[in-house]
Every structure is written in structure tokens, then in C-alpha cells.
Amino acid sequence: MTWSVDSWKARPLAQEIHYEDTAGADAVVTKLRQLPPLVTSWEIERLKKLVAEAQAGKRFLLQGGDCAEMFADCKPDIITSKLKILLQMSLVLVHAGKIPVVRVGRLAGQYAKPRSKLTEERDGVVLPSYFGDLINRPDFTPEARRADPRAMLDAYGHAALTLNFVRSLSDGGFADLHHPEYWDLAFLSRADLPPEMREEYTQTSHRLSEALRFMEALGETTVDELTSVEFYTSHEGLNLHYESAQTRTVPRRTGHYLLTTHLPWIGERTRAVDGAHVEFFRGIENVVGVKIGSNVDPADALNLLEFLNPNNEAGKLVLITRMGAAHVQRALPPLVDRIHRAKRKVLWVCDPMHGNTIPTANGLKTRSFDDILFEIEQTFAIHHDSGSFLGGVHFELTGEDVTECVGGGLTEEDLDRNYASVCDPRLNYRQALEMAFRVGHWLGRAKPSLRF
Ligand code: PEP
Ligand code: CO
């Protein structure tokens, strides 16, 4: 079967986005095809090389950010907080794991959300669910919930603004490992951060800076690579109208590149092997993520990986398992075993968030810090027992002081205080930093053979 940028249109489309205004949608897609790309093929190929190295145990991947980014949050302080917490977490992981970390934000384009329920009912009124700012708006009115093609141009614009700011910060030295003090969030000095955690973080960052200066004094050539912090973007490739409009060939390379993001992923609800999303993603050159939940049949997963990466190219696939604390011990071992025995090249990443969402008594969605920890700990152990290894973690988090997940300093009664997510509950700053210390501890013990 030949692939084309539009061949997905002949396949069943899960989570279908229906634009009533077809002429408007066509006009937006035409415009998006002409606009410059948000990322380049060089960056994508560089990330593929880093992911290939992570698959060989030489790097660890940290992926994180909002469940759903919102246009209204495209503000400098919110973007810098997110960048800072990811940088701080990565520093903790580098230090504890003695391994370079690849940083990937759920950022600059995470605007489309799959929904378990396609419609929402309130007081007898049924409207389409909110599918993220790329598609419609959260207000419960027919106008807001109608899929609006112009939102694709708005999403492109907000992604470009975010990316421009992130790139400027990174190039301007903000993300230089010599200056971790730039990344301190205001919360680091706040009273409710346990003093031991503050101390541990401060010590970690000092030790790391000192180690770098020492290596530089020795004339180590790897220092430059270690200190200039690269930052990659990722989002769920849910809206294929949008993604395919920015997919093109580039001079002097073969194949098609999806240029809205470095690392698009296929969600748990759209990974059917004969479906439109898998058809689209099998044809692009990017590193592609696939989310896998506890209902997976390992044989189907293997089939999916072969379809997406028939040549078993290194660096191509990131397999993000999201089993849930209650299912991980049952569902993960046979999957790891099957894929590992088949010698498929994948980077195993644990998303301990999406299998652990529970409702509170007042109808909020939350996640327990302990469940999240348990799933990661088990995932490390299961890989170890199968002769495989965990190569990364994927979190929904924010640098803000939100109250969405319980544990790590918060109880269910605290959730009302600052529950800001329009979608899934995120780790707040303190919870995210604590998570990094815990993961760092396991990572340091896991040590695949090839660490530096
Ligand atoms: C997500 O990452 O926000 C998401 C919806 O994940 P999943 O497809 O794993 O449910
Ligand atoms: Co989510």
C-alpha cells in the first residue's frame, strides 16, 4: 500500500473531528501548507540520534508538561516555569542517574485532546466534548464546542510564539548547566517545600556545576555537549488535518517530515493498526511515540511496531506504557517480554499518569502520588527482570503551585484550592521535584551497562 500525506483519509478515523465548515477547513489546511515549519528536519534527525542512544542505554528521556496546553496560558511566566521545572528535574536525574538526559516538553502544540466520551451532557443538554484549543473551546455552548477550523491557525501561531520564546531562552544561556541558579522557581524558597528537599536540590545543583568546572579544567571535550541544554517539543498527533498540512519533503533528504513538532505521539485511543492515525504516522520520518495501556495484547503491539517501523530503524519509536498501578504487574511483563524477544528497537518510557486517574468525591479528577510512584518503581523492576531497561519517564506536570494530584504534600481537601487543569490533573512544582528525586534514585540503581 502506498503512503501519501492524505492516505489516512481512506482509513477509519477514531476521535473524528468533524468540521461542518468544510470550505473553511480546506482554506486553513491550504494556508498551513504554505506557512513555514515550526521545527526543522535537522532537529528531528538529531533527536532521532539521541533516542537511538537512549535505546542503547546511554541517555534517559524526560518528557513532561501540561495535559492540555491552552492558548490563554501562552504567557512568559507560565512558559518559563514549565521550562524551569523540566530543567530542574533533568538536573536531578543527570546527577542521580549519572546519565545525560534528553528533555522533551509536552509543549508548543499540545492543544488537542482525545476524549473517552465524545459528547458531554449537562442538565439534559448534550454537546460535543472539549477536544482542546486546537479544535474547540471549553465553554459549554454550542458555538464554543463546534469544531472551528480557524483554531488550527491559532494553534500554529501560539505554538510558534511558545517555541520562539523557548528557543531564545535556551540560546541565551538560560538553559546552561553552568547556571542552574537561573532555573530556580520562586517556590524553591517557599516555606512549604520541605527543607530537606530544598537542601538536596541546592546541593545537587552545586555539585553538578562544580563537576562541570572540574571537567572543563581537565580539558574534557564532552563538556560542551553536556552543558548546552537542548530542548525538544512533543504533542499528541490527534488532529490529522493539522498535522498532515505541515508534513512535507525537505531539500536533500528523503521522506516526509511532520514539522509541527519534533516528537508526535499516537494516543491510546487512536493506535488501531488499521486506523487513520497509524496510517499517517507510519509514513513520516520523525521519532514517533505510541501510548500503550493495560488492555494491550502483546501480539497486537508487536504487529503495530512492525507496521510503524518495518526496518527496525534505531531511534524511531518511543513506546510509552501507561498501565496504572493496579495493572502494571499483570500487563507489562508479557508486553516487555514479547517486544524484547522480538528484538524490536524501542525506547521504553513510563507514563505513570494516565492509568492512574481517579474521581474524587466531589467529581474532580485526581491522581495519587503514591500510585504514580508505585507504577514507576514496578516498571523499573519489570524491565530489569526481563533483561530490558526503562529509558524514560513521561509526566503531566506544571511549574505552577496547582492542587490537582493528591499525596506529596496535598490531601483531597486541598484540591479545590487551585485546581487549574481543564483536562487531567498535573503534578505541581513540589510534587514534580520530589518525583525526580525518587526516579533518580531508581535510575541510579538500574544502571544499564553503558552509562558514562
Ligand atoms: C495524554 O497523554 O494526555 C493522553 C490522553 O494519553 P493516553 O492516550 O495515554 O490516554
Ligand atoms: Co492527559
List keywords for this structure.
single chain; 452 residues; alpha/beta; two-stranded antiparallel sheet; 13 helices; 39% helix; binds phosphoenolpyruvate
Provide the fold topology:
Blueprint: H1 22-34, H2 41-55, E1 60-65, H3 76-97, E2 101-106, E3 119-122, E4 125-128, H4 142-145, H5 150-171, H6 195-217, H7 223-227, E5 232-236, H8 240-245, E6 247-249, E7 256-258, E8 263-266, H9 276-282, E9 288-292, H10 298-308, E10 317-321, H11 328-341, E11 347-350, E12 357-359, E13 365-367, H12 369-386, E14 392-396, H13 429-446
Parallel strand pairs: 1-2, 1-14, 2-5, 5-8, 8-9, 9-10, 10-11, 11-14
Antiparallel strand pairs: 3-4, 6-7, 12-13
Helix pairs in contact: 1-5, 3-6, 3-13, 10-11, 11-12, 12-13
Bound molecules: phosphoenolpyruvate and cobalt (II) ion.
Phosphoenolpyruvate (PEP) is lined by residues 67, 114, 236, 267-269, 291, 322, 354, 424.
